[in-house]
Automatic annotation (TrEMBL):
PANTHER family registered for this protein in UniProt: TRNA-DIHYDROURIDINE(47) SYNTHASE [NAD(P)(+)]-LIKE (PTHR45846:SF1)
Name of the protein: tRNA-dihydrouridine synthase
Originating organism: Pedobacter montanisoli
Needed cofactors: FMN
Signal peptide from the UniProt entry: none
A Pfam family annotated for this UniProt entry: Dus
InterPro entries assigned to the protein according to its UniProt record, in alphabetical order: Aldolase_TIM, DUS-like_FMN-bd, DUS_fam, DusB-like, tRNA-dHydroUridine_Synthase_C, tRNA_hU_synthase_CS
Catalytic activities: a 5,6-dihydrouridine in tRNA + NADP(+) = a uridine in tRNA + NADPH + H(+); a 5,6-dihydrouridine in tRNA + NAD(+) = a uridine in tRNA + NADH + H(+)
Gene of this entry: dusB
Domain of life: Bacteria
GO molecular function, one term: oxidoreductase activity
Domain named DUS-like FMN-binding: residues: 16-306
Amino acid sequence: MSVKIGNIDLGDFPLLLAPMEDVSDPPFRYVCKQGGADMMYTEFISSEGLIRSAAKSRQKLDVFEYERPIGIQIFGSDIESMREATEIATLAQPDLIDINYGCPVKNVACRGAGASLLQDIDKMVKMTEAVVKATHLPVTVKTRLGWDDNTKNVYEVAERLQDIGIQALTIHGRTRAQLYKGEADWTLIREIKRNPRIKIPIFGNGDVDSPVKAANWRMEYEVDGIMIGRAAIGYPWIFREIKHFFETGQLMDGPTLEERVLACRTHLTKSIEWKGPKTGVFEMRRHYANYFKGLPDFKPYRMQLVKEENIEVIYSLLDEISEKYLFAEL
């Protein structure tokens, strides 16, 4: 049975790339798509920023053909702004619109957006309804278990949002109060999946960082697909490794050094193309350590990479890493 969101066919058990602020930009999405992600989302975009045509918000609307299917994720605290932002996002021609009711970060949640709407489900329902009515595209939602341990209300949220027309729900197995600490708990996600009233796909998110865990949780929690966030940073191969394990029951070999260098180079090249040389080089700095995690004595290279501004020098450093560590492997 294929998992479908509207007319989008995502196959038997899709692996989704989570929308991550300052991470899930087009260059990062490009390498994750190559790594086997079935569905991706933009970084979350402020509805107020879109309405005011803020350059940073507008740039986040960029979606490319090779990324499809892709969703634009928006957030906000004002219903009318969210309705207008939905119209603007729809014009960018994504495959769906996703609403963020999960972001725990202070400057989002404390402004009445993101996860804070878990404290006001009536408003969340009204806002979602306004978004659904403002677009012809499927609307999906990402949220958390609840605001804190005393208000785990996502069971009610799932029913009410399905009733007004959302077409899939992703649940991060933590409360707002937990932020990203402690362990994700997917038991409530399974309860929602088992609710006979729920007909839309339910995706689980939080702490899936290996093929074995993905396979175990797929069975244990009965979700329709898994959304992966932090485990894909610097490791876009996680998607193909999970799929390989599902199909064969065997663990795939990790990426070769050449694959790591190539993915890093590709990410850098796309980053420069999309953001221009200065920002492209600067924003790539947070990724180097992740691409080369576990290489012995890598620190001197990392220090050079994060300081270097000359693009040609960065490329030659990557070549040098390739030669040095490949030679060491031989």
